[in-house]
Amino acid sequence: MLDVAVLVSGRGSNLQALIDACESQDFPARIVVVISNNPDAYGLKRAKAANIPTSVINHRDFDTREDFEEAIDLELKKYKSKFLCLAGFMRILDARFVNRWKDRILNIHPSLLPSFKGLHTQERALESGVRFTGCTVHIVRPEMDDGPIILQAALAIDPDDNADTLSAKVLELEHIIYPEALKLIALGRVRVSASKAVIEKASYPSGGLVSPEIIN
Ligand code: GRF
């Protein structure tokens, strides 16, 4: 069983997807703590509703990023967390912290990385005229929205889509692939090298591009 901490800053719908997955008996990971830098994050309420310990570590209470991350690290140790999932965590983590947790931090991003790193991904996808968008679960490296890709899910952009409709469609896919990626890692089916992750072939004949039909 992999003991996981989830870091959130807001709504926490991906956290909810992870909570729901962990509730199933045979899921190989469990959430030991949910940490938020934002005391008002709705994700904290979701965690409490699921009887998961929560902790607020507000970045505003610290003079430096290093001190803030040190406090997070202490909390992770307190709960004996072995792995971290960033789920809408809106603070950039310093290289020191990321390297300390090398290959043990997962993030979800609402684009087909390496395209559209950063914010407002669906607006930028629409503006650029790409035909597909989607989401990516990847191992965190010190550069923002960078690192070995575990799973991606893609969808075709409809000419009538706007940023809101696209975000909603992508979010549905996020809720599928985030628990799935965590499961693969917890089962030891992912091999991570410097820039690439390889999934045991038997897990996904498609090699990591997920369509809901493959999962269900
Ligand atoms: C998601 O779109 C995720 O991909 C991005 O931040 C958003 C968080 O949403 N990293 P939620 O808090 O999980 O609902």
What can you tell me about this protein's structure?
With 216 residues, the protein is of the alpha/beta class. It folds into two domains: 1-101, Formyl transferase, N-terminal domain (Rossmann fold, 3-Layer(aba) Sandwich), CATH 3.40.50; 107-216, Rossmann fold, CATH 3.40.50. It is 35% helix and 24% strand. It has seven helices and ten strands. It has helices at 13-23, 42-49, 65-78, 95-100, 121-128, 163-186, 212-215, and strands at 2-8, 29-36, 54-56, 83-86, 105-109, 132-139, 149-156, 190-192, 197-199, 209-210. The strands form two sheets. Strands 3-2-1-4-5-6-7-10 form an eight-stranded mixed β-sheet, sandwiched between helices. A two-stranded antiparallel ribbon has the order 8-9. Helix 1 runs parallel beside helix 6. The longest helix has 24 residues, at 163-186. The chain is globular, with a radius of gyration of 17 Å. Mean pLDDT is 94; it is low at 212-216. The structure holds 5-O-phosphono-beta-D-ribofuranosylamine. Residues 10-14, 87-88, 108-110, 171, 174 line the site of 5-O-phosphono-beta-D-ribofuranosylamine.
Topology readout:
Blueprint (H helix, E strand, L loop, with lengths): L1 E7 L4 H11 L5 E8 L5 H8 L4 E3 L8 H14 L4 E4 L8 H6 L4 E5 L11 H8 L3 E8 L9 E8 L6 H24 L3 E3 L4 E3 L9 E2 L1 H4 L1
Helix pairs in contact: 1-6
The structure holds 5-O-phosphono-beta-D-ribofuranosylamine (GRF).
The site of 5-O-phosphono-beta-D-ribofuranosylamine has 12 residues, from helix 1, strand 5 and helix 6.
